[in-house]
Amino acid sequence: MATASRYYDGETALVSEVGVRATAAELIIFRPADSGIVARWPIAELAVLGDSGHEGAPPVVRRGGEARLVIEDLELRRQLAALVPPLAALAVLPAPVGRRVAALGATLAVLVGLFWVAIDYGTEYAAPWLPYSLQAKLGENVFEELVADKDECQGKPGLEAINALANKLAQAAGYEHEIVVHVIEGGPVNAFTLPGGILVFYSDLIEQAKDRSQVAGVLAHEIGHVVHHHPIKGIARQYGIELLAKLVSGGYSDLLNTLTSGGNILLALRNGRAFEREADTTGVALLEKLEFRADGIAGFFEQMMEKEPKDAASAAGIWSSHPPTRERIAATKRPAAGTPAFSDADWKALRDVCK
Ligand SMILES: [Zn+2]
Predict the structure, then answer these.
(1) Distance 341 CA to ligand 1 centre (A)
(2) In what order do the strands lie in the sheet with 68-70?
(3) How far is the CA of 282 from the centre of ligand 1 (A)?
(4) Are 37 and 29 in contact (CB under 8 A)?
(5) Pair 52, 92: CB distance under 8 Å
(6) pLDDT tens digits, 99-154
(7) How confident is the model at residue 16 (pLDDT cuts 50, 70, 90)?
């Protein structure tokens, strides 16, 4: 059982062609030329990264290590999946994205392959392939474009209150970067998240929420998007990895133009079904972890269901149209009990943030 596979050592940009074989105890990665051992990974420590929908071959890792192994050969993947229980996910058929990657040429394909790993498996893998500073710059520029003709609310105590809770929630999820929440005056009743931990709330959402738990619930949901890196993944899915690769390869202004022209930004901000479910689940879990009242996400949807706006702007953000609102309510329903995430003073300050 030995077919060429790719091995990324996780420390340098080097990619080596390797052979792979499995014993009862180990996965052995070796150089085809002289059979020299590159790595021995204990079976018990193996993991397959991700849902395998993005890349032809999902990377295999040794847990806790940075190195990655990509096994190109489908037959070999199937054999390993059958033999080695932790590798069972390798048998899942890949999505057609692999063909697009192949068309990019070898150099860029390597970059893009690593790049997918980076955006799927967190900021620790993203460096240096997708520096956080670039994501933040992209988010800031998109934000500037988006609010160019709108008023940003400046109430300092209110902004401090919502930013403090946002950062507390993100820290509870182990997120290492700062979150910045902006409040835009007026409507629609909506909130959304941009790359680089930038959250945008419209003041109509704060005003029309029935109580502070609902605003805390929406905030926690948006933090769910942040900690799962949904905005940058969403842009990658919407526009293709070729475009997002410009972030790392010097075509930044092209990328920004594409994102901010026409109604594109609304498309880019639309989260898929899986992302919304994940953000809902994580949002509730973070509130519960901090021992705050956690009924706000379901409460917000119940309260707003009749008013759900139908215009294009509302297809993005918290209203991303799927999964169905009723299903989201059922999944996030929690008892209306516990300490409110916003104190009395913070909630009052937030209600006055635009005054
Ligand atoms: Zn959402």
Answers:
(1) 19
(2) 37-42, 26-30, 15-22, 5-8, 68-70, 60-62, 46-48
(3) 11
(4) yes
(5) yes
(6) 444 444 444 444 455 455 555 554 334 333 456 777 888 889 889 888 888 999 99
(7) confident
Phi then psi for 184, rounded to 5 degrees? -100, 135
User: How many angstroms separate the CA atoms of 111 and 115, rounded?
Assistant: 6
In sequence order, which residues have a C-beta less than 8 Å from that of residue 156 and are 6 or more positions away? Answer: none
**229, burial (CB in 10 Å: exposed 0-12, middle 13-18, buried 19+):** buried
Centre of ligand 1 from the C-alpha of residue 5, in Å = 38
Could you tell me how far CA 208 lies from the centroid of its own chain?
28
3-state secondary structure of 42: strand
Query: How far is ligand 1, taken at its centre, from the CA of residue 256, in Å?
Result: 22
**Could you read off the pLDDT of 256-266 as tens digits, one per residue?**
887 777 667 76
Q: Which tokens belong to 185?
A: 């005056």
82 alpha carbon – ligand 1 mean position (Å): 37
Instruction: Please tell me the distance from the alpha carbon of residue 298 to that of residue 25, in angstroms, as a whole number.
Output: 47
Cα distances (angstroms) measured from residue 350 to each of 9, 113, 253, 354: 48, 43, 36, 8
Give 229-286 pLDDT, tens digit per residue: 888 877 766 665 556 666 666 677 877 887 777 667 767 777 778 888 999 999 999 9
Task: Give the pLDDT of residue 64.
Answer: 80
The label of the residue with tokens 């003709």 reads 149
Tell me the CA–centroid distance for residue 57 and ligand 1, in Å: 29
